Amino acid sequence: MALSLTVLAGCGSGAEQTAPRIEGAPTLTIYSGRNQELVGGLLERMQTAIGANVEVRYGSTGEMSAQLLEEGADTPADVFFGQDAGALGALSKAGLLAPLPAETTANALPQYRAADNTWVATSGRSRVVAYNPDRTPADQLPPNVDALLDPRWRGQIGYAPSNASWLSFVTGLRLLRGEDGARQWLTAFAGQQPQRFDGNGAIVDAINQGTVTLGLVNHYYLYEKTHDIDPATYRVANHYVPNDPLGLVNVAGAGVLRATDQPELANRAVQFLLSRDAQQYLVDETNEYPTVAGVARSRAVPPLPPIETLSPPPVRLADLDSVDVTQRMLQETGLL
Questions:
Q1: Which residues of the chain have pLDDT under 50?
Q2: Is 308 in contact with 296 (CB distance < 8 Å)?
Q3: Which pLDDT tens digit goes with each residue over 42-51?
Q4: Which residues contact 262 (CB under 8 A, 6 or more apart)?
Q5: Do the Cβ atoms of 14 and 20 come closer than 8 Å?
Q6: Taking the CB of residue 309, how many other CB atoms lie within 10 A of it?
Q7: What secondary structure letter does DSSP report for 53?
Q8: pTM for this predicted structure
Q9: Chain CA centroid to CA 20, Å
Q10: Neighbouring C-alpha atoms within 13 Å toward the C-beta of 293
Q11: I want to staple 282 with a disulfide (CB 3.0 to 4.6 A). Which of 91, 93, 123, 234 is the partner?
């Protein structure tokens, strides 16, 4: 049976027909804040799984969530597939997401579902401190976020000031310590003269090259760098920091729009994203954590600790939507 995946670029109305349509089948519209290069193949598989034409509008998570907030009840979208919990939380707070049936989210680990069941995490990513094990013994690594303020790390920490994962980390710090506590830490961190990079990938490369000693990144950048090479030749490792802002676990996730006129089909689409086939795809193609138990990377080197073994700080992921406040604080402290 021929299938169809229509790609809608950005927020415009133009569409690219990439495959024949299923004649007579319903059409599901997805607003995706996840990159097409990462999840395009997965959404093609979704068509087979749910037996429907799938139209996808791609853009950044911020663009897509803003579009949904603007469209409100008039949105043509049936499903939102977002890159971070903050955007999902914002849409839920605005009343745009419908509660998901228990059977839709049954496969997901309980800690990675919204409290009101309006969205569910489809994959996770952990903040880590990346380091070169040849230069820094494991017993000398910072045990918590305040240890980064030790004078020994002055000028030796890399961070990506405009990266979404850094902004989520600082937002988590604000939620945990309050505005004054977060500003105090950021002011002290700025005094450490951390080195700025355009992205997390550049940070781990700099660690491998010896330009910086530590890097504040997401876990999967190491796996991206070592995908096609012997990991032993790339001298970077991930340091996981439990029960601390440095160990924040953020998620990508999906929700069904309350405005959809085909909720059963939309729920099947979300359920597919939690299937073993979809979870295996996400783990292998994006190097993120599965949010379903029992799924592991096909390529086991370097090893990826099971998501159940992580101990992130007690942050409500839906509250990571206050990035605008974080950006103002970073500007005030000279870190953005």
A1: 1-4, 11-19
A2: no
A3: 999 999 899 9
A4: 26, 28, 78
A5: no
A6: 8
A7: E
A8: 0.88
A9: 32
A10: 7
A11: 123
C-alpha distance from residue 34 to each of 37, 151, 257, 274, 282 (Å): 9, 39, 17, 16, 11
**φ, ψ (nearest 5 deg) of residue 6:** -100, 130
- Using alpha carbons only, what angle is made at residue 87 by residues 316 and 5, rounded to the nearest 5 degrees? 130
Mean pLDDT in the chain? Answer: 91
Q: d(Cα 157, Cα 188) in Å, to the nearest integer?
A: 13
Residue with token string 């519209």: 29
Contact 98, 263 (CB under 8 A): yes
Contact 280, 294 (CB under 8 A): no
Question: Kind and range of the H or E element at 283?
Answer: helix 276-286
- Is residue 126 within a helix (H) or strand (E), and if so which, with residue range? strand 120-131
Taking the C-alpha atoms of residue 7 and residue 21, their distance in angstroms, rounded to an integer, is 13
**What DSSP letter does each residue of 201-270 carry, written as one string?**
HHHHHHHHHTS-SEEEEETHHHHHHTSSS-GGGS--EEE--TTSGGG-EEEEEEEEETT-S-HHHHHHHH
**How many other CB atoms are found less than 10 A from the CB of residue 139?**
6
Q: How far apart are CA 132 and CA 136, in angstroms?
A: 6
Q: How far is CA 48 from the centre of its chain?
A: 25
* CA count, 13 A, side-chain hemisphere, 246: 21
The strand pair at 289-290 and 157-159 is best described as unpaired
CA-nearest of 99, 97, 94, 92 to 70 is: 94
Amino acid 176 reads L
Query: 12-37: b or e for each residue (b if 16 or more CB lie within 10 Å)?
Result: eeeeeeeeeebeebebbbbbbbbeee
141-158 pLDDT per residue, tens? 999 999 999 999 999 999
Q: Which pLDDT value is given to residue 15?
A: 35
